[in-house]
Amino acid sequence: MCLGLPMQVERCHGLVADCRQGERWQSVDLSLVGEVQPGDWLLVFTGAAREVLSPQQAADILDALAALDAAMNGQFDPNIHLADLNQREPQLPPHLQAQFDAQRKTF
What we know:
Elements: E1 5-13, E2 16-21, E3 24-29, E4 41-45, E5 48-53, H1 55-72, H2 78-81, H3 83-86, H4 94-105
Antiparallel strand pairs: 1-2, 1-4, 2-3, 4-5
């Protein structure tokens, strides 16, 4: 399985950026996303930036990867790794919610 990893831009030179995620550093090709600034977050896959992320998107992805790592190491705790889901009801995606609402009106 291949995953894109969020990485933060440290330095830019043309369409190449030096990025880091934790202790990991990588030169990243920016051809698909264009110019970025130091501090920006990128979704990086096989050495190329695929998307510019908001800081919140990057944090959400890093949290999901930490939960996956914990599950693989037998340390998963839903109260820690799914804390954002503990106090809310499940929600349907908008296209399914519209379908559900339409069906409910027919009964």
